[in-house]
Amino acid sequence: MTIIINVFGTEFSLKQPITLDLESPTLRDVLAALQRHHEGAWRSILKEDLSLQEGCVVLVNGRNIASLEKLETKIRDGDEITFTVLVAGG
Amino acid sequence: MKGICGKLLEIDLTSGKTKTLPVKKEHYEKYLGGRGLGIRLLYDMLPPKTDPLSPENLLFFLTGPLTGTYVTGSSKFVVVTKSPLTQGWCDSYSSGRISVELKKAGYDGLVIRGKSNQPCYLRMDGKGVEIRDAHFLWGKDSFETERMLREMEKDPNVGVSSIGPAGEKLVKIACINSDLYRQAGRGGVGAVMGSKNLKAIVVKGNKSVETFDRQAIVDLNRKNYQVALKSPVAQARMKFGTPLTLNVTHVGGILPTMNFRFGTWEKALEKIDSVGVYKSLKSHKACLSCFIHCSLVTEVSEGKYKGITLEGPEYETLGMFGSNQLIDCLPVIMQANILCDKLGIDTISAGNIIAFVMECFERELISSSQTEGLEIRFGDADASLAAVERMAMRQGFGDVLAEGVKSVAHYVGNGSERFAMHVKGLEFPAYEPRGAFGSGLSYAVSPRGACHRRAWPPAKEVLGGYPPYTIEGKAAMIKELYDENCVLHSLLVCDMPAKFIPMSLDVYSQYYHGASGESVSKEDFLKIADRIETLIRMFNNREGFTRKDDTLPYRTLNEPLPDGPAKGQSIGEENLNKMIDEYYALRGWDVSGTPTEATLRRHQL
Question: Which residues of B496-519 are buried (b: 16+ CB within 10 A; e: fewer)?
Answer without folding.
Answer: bbbbbbbbebebbbbbbbbbbebe
